[in-house]
């Protein structure tokens, strides 16, 4: 039910790498607005890697940077 501009800011949309985590961050925002005092968003456990770090961490960062920035700005 969020306006298109909000969904775009969180990176929510079909096929976007930020869609899943963006939805979590938007839900976190809604929970905080409703007075929930502790909220946790998870981005699987793909950060614990032992090889191909540059490429894989860059991919992970692409998935989370935009949604986290939108949540912090809100």
Question: What does this protein look like?
Answer:
It is a single chain. This protein has 74 residues and is an all-alpha fold. 57% of the residues lie in helices and 0% in strands. The protein is built from 3 helices and no strands. The longest helix has 21 residues, at 53-73. The chain is globular. It starts with a helix and ends with a helix. The mean pLDDT is 93.
Distance between the termini: 17 Å
Strand percentage lies at under 5%
Number of helices: 3
* Total number of beta strands: 0
Ranges where pLDDT stays below 50 over 5 or more residues in a row are none
Gyration radius (Cα, Å) is: 13 Å
What is this structure's SSE topology?
Layout: H1 4-9, H2 19-33, H3 53-73
Helix pairs in contact: 2-3
Brief rundown of the structure:
With 74 residues, this protein is mostly helical. It is built from three helices and no strands.
